[in-house]
Amino acid sequence: MTTASTGASLDHDIGFAGLLSIRLADGRARLRATDGTTVRIRDSHGRELSDMFAVDLGDGSVSLHADKRGRHWHGGGQSPDLEIDIPRAATVVIEGGSADIEADGLVGDQRYRTASGDMSLRAVSGRVAIDAVSGDVDMSATGETAVTIKTVSVKETAK
Fold first, then answer.
1. Of 5, 95, 112, which Cα lies nearest the Cα of 50?
2. Cα(95)–Cα(63) distance, integer angstroms
3. How many CB atoms sit inside 10 A of residue 49's CB?
């Protein structure tokens, strides 16, 4: 298992079908599918991930979670802006309070939940579960896709 954390970047080998779990109160998470076995997570503002989240690195998994009150640890007043490169077939679980979520090219199991934020899922396939209370959901699927969507006060667009 290879793990590296320098500044605002974390690299961790989860295998081709590992697990990424993120819980954030606000901000943005942008996920991009890559070939390979390593998750790379960066904050575009250059802040240490461990200053904003409890970071748990396991064998085949990475989790970033805000504290129990839903707030980020020591974010310095700026919301997280995460850029994530992830193995294409990884399982993804993203929970956000007031967070925008973008995903591109993922084919593994995916679960997205937000109370107030927009979702843009491009070129996804596999099992996709979406739970959104307020915001826009825009999804385009390629290949075989099983979609479950629960929304309240949301504008949905599926292609």
1. 5
2. 11
3. 20
Residue 23 confidence (pLDDT) above 80: yes
* Alpha-carbon radius of gyration of the chain: 15
Q: What is the 3-state secondary structure (H, E, C) of the chain?
A: CCEEEECCEEEEECCCCCEEEEEEEEEEEEEEEECCCEEEEEECCCCCHHHCCEEEEECCEEEEECCCCCCCCCCCCCCCEEEEEEECCCEEEEEEEEEEEEEECCCCCEEEEECCCCEEEEEEEEEEEEEECCEEEEEEEEEEEEEEEEECCEEEEEC
Q: Report residue 73 as tokens.
A: 């640890």
Instruction: Give pLDDT tens digits for 52-68.
Output: 899 999 999 999 998 65
pTM score of the predicted model: 0.89
Distance in angstroms (rounded) separating the CA atoms of residues 95 and 103: 13
What pLDDT is recorded for position 75?
47
For the chain, the domains span 3-158
**How far, in Å, CA of 116 to CA of 101, rounded?**
11
pLDDT digits (tens, 9 = 90+) for 104-157: 999 999 999 999 999 999 999 999 999 999 889 999 999 999 999 998 876 666
